[in-house]
Amino acid sequence: MADPSPRILRASEIGEYVFCRRAWWLDRVKGIASTNLEQMHAGIARHAAHGRAVQRADLLRRAAVALLAIAFFLAAALAYTAVFSVR
């Protein structure tokens, strides 16, 4: 009889398996936890910091585009008033 609640295999598990089948087997099958938890937590923190930096860079890029558009329209309005106010 099939298990009524089959275990879901996540993409991250596939990545772990491809990276090191033995480590995946030790963790998932044997239940032996990794001993380098400090380095793993440091890596997680570094990835989170990098993600925040990428979000800030994207926000700054969007702000730069918006300011450039505003500058363009102000320059166009100034040129329009300069051309049509010389009567």
What this model shows, in words?
This protein has 87 residues and is mainly α. It has one domain (11-84). It contains three helices and no strands. The longest helix is centred in the last third of the chain and has 48 residues, at 37-84. The mean pLDDT is 90.
- The first-to-last residue Cα distance is 92 Å
Radius of gyration: 28 Å
* Count of discrete structural domains: 1
Q: Detail the poorly predicted runs.
A: none
Shape: elongated
**Helix and strand composition category:** mainly alpha
What is the strand tally?
A: 0
Summarize the main sheet.
none
Mean pLDDT: 90
Q: Helical region count?
A: 3
Instruction: Give the fraction of residues assigned to helices.
Output: over 70%
Strand content: under 5%
Order of helices and strands: HHH
Question: How do the strands and helices of this protein lay out in sequence?
Answer:
Layout: H1 11-19, H2 21-28, H3 37-84
